[in-house]
Amino acid sequence: MTDTLKPLSGIRVIELGQLLAGPFTGCMLGYFGAEVIKIEPPKGGDPIRGWRVLRDNTSLWWRSLARNKKCITLDLNAERGSALAKQLINTADVVIENFRPGVMEKWGLGPKAFEQSNPGLIYTRISGYGQTGPYAKKAGFASVCEGISGFRYVNGFPDEPPVRPNLSIGDTIAGIHAALGVCLAIIARHKNGDGQGQVVDVALYESMFNLMEAVIPEYDGAGVIRQPSGTTVTGIVPTNTYRCRDGKYVVVGGNGDSIFQRLMVAAGFPELAADERFATNADRVVNEAEIDELLAAWCAQHQAQEILDLLEQNRVPGGPIYSVEDMFKDPHFIERGLFEQVSINGEPLTIPAIMPKLTTTPGGTEWPGPELGSHNSAVLGDILGLSEMEIAEMKEQGVI
Questions:
Q1: Phi/psi at 213 (5° precision)
Q2: Distance CA 382, CA 53 (A)
Q3: Do residues 44 and 127 make contact, with C-beta atoms less than 8 angstroms apart?
Q4: Which of 74, 169, 386, 392 is most exposed, with minimal Cβ within 10 Å?
Q5: What pLDDT is stored for residue 347 in this prediction?
Q6: Residue 63 neighbours by CB under 8 Å, 6+ apart
Q7: What per-residue confidence (pLDDT) applies to 15?
């Protein structure tokens, strides 16, 4: 796989920021061909380098998240460091930053600094609450923003604390929105014909707010406040998770009218397939408790695979609840190319592929997340024209 086959080949991205939302944006853009130059502080670098499970004192997560990136170090608090960052940004198509609003301006690196020197720059800003509004300067971690977005409210069981998925989903969803915003801005820059860039303003809480489906119109139009509903989805029946005899769980989605009829046949209740009490989704919502009790009892009598086989035979959507170990064993995951292998100091490591899949201009992993400052000489020398002596002096001064 070569860069010329990737859709973002020739696009230079400067990534500033740390932890997850900004770096995930850079990860996506780099996967599809962009040249991503990540700027990290000289002392320690991005904190994710040391998060969770480590190998050789570096996070395994880092090897995935920082794939395809050219990693350099610059102390942005030092005048020389921020000046070099400005020079780099002036060579770029895109900048990504996920600091609290005002931090980039403090370093002299805000969008206005590039209006004349790089008018085509697409300046991508990711923050908890956006660049404007009364909450703009608040700290906005994913956990907090998932809560205020309304997302957490509808998760969990009634009368219990809202449940958090064991992932920083707010950061990742914001990163996907930011990558989409960058691509839209690139298209706009091309279509307008004037080469003008723009600011892409992504907020974590707004990215999660974007997932809220009918929650807003249902409240305004009918005064309905969507409540948490455990393992079900409000207003759609049946769709639930059931425990089987072997202790494993299966997901059953039988909420289409004809699908429900086939589900009843599969479960051994053909007489209920024609029961008028269950004819439409609205009818089934009224009788949800009875349907769930029936399906729970059915699943409890069978092994999970037996249930899944019956569902498949009757063309009813159903599936297992997978752990990561299950994914590694699944032939469909393997054939679809969801796993990619890289080498870390001679040792193989599997990392996930990045979606979506493109047939003629696919993305791919060229190298895993590199060591701190490993591209200093290449980037500062080849792109900015610094000599080896200048680079050595800056290292001695702590700038890099």
A1: 50, -120
A2: 35
A3: no
A4: 392
A5: 96
A6: 342, 344, 349, 351, 368, 369
A7: 98
Kindly list the catalytic residues: 171
Cα atoms in the Cβ-side hemisphere of radius 13 Å centred on 395: 14
pTM for this entry: 0.94
pLDDT digits (tens, 9 = 90+) for 16-35: 988 899 999 999 999 999 99
Strand partners, 240: 252
Span 44-66, average pLDDT? 96
Residue 52 contacts residue 199 (beta carbons within 8 Å): no
Residue 338 CA to its chain's centroid (Å): 15
- Rounded CA-CA distance 121/155 in Å is 39
List C-alpha distances in Å: 211 to 78, 177, 183, 356.
40, 11, 20, 18
User: Both tokens of residue 389?
Assistant: 């002596």
Q: Rounded distance, CA 254 to CA 29, Å?
A: 38
Give φ, ψ of 284 to 5 degrees. Answer: -70, -30
3-state class (DSSP) for residue 44: coil
Q: With a cut of 60, say whether residue 3 has pLDDT above it.
A: no
Mean of the per-residue pLDDT values of the chain: 96
What is the DSSP secondary-structure string of 286-331?
HTHHHHHHHHHHHHHTS-HHHHHHHHHHTT--EEE---HHHHHH-H
Taking the C-alpha atoms of residue 40 and residue 46, their distance in angstroms, rounded to an integer, is 6
- Residue 56 zone, left/alpha/beta (φ > 0; ψ -120 to 50; rest): left
* Domains, in order of start, for the chain: 3-210+336-397 (3.40.50.10540), 239-243+249-320 (3.30.1540.10)
Tens digits of residue pLDDT in 291-303: 999 999 999 999 9
Q: Is the pLDDT of residue 149 over 90?
A: yes
**What pairs with residue 243 in β-bridges?**
249
pLDDT at 223: 98
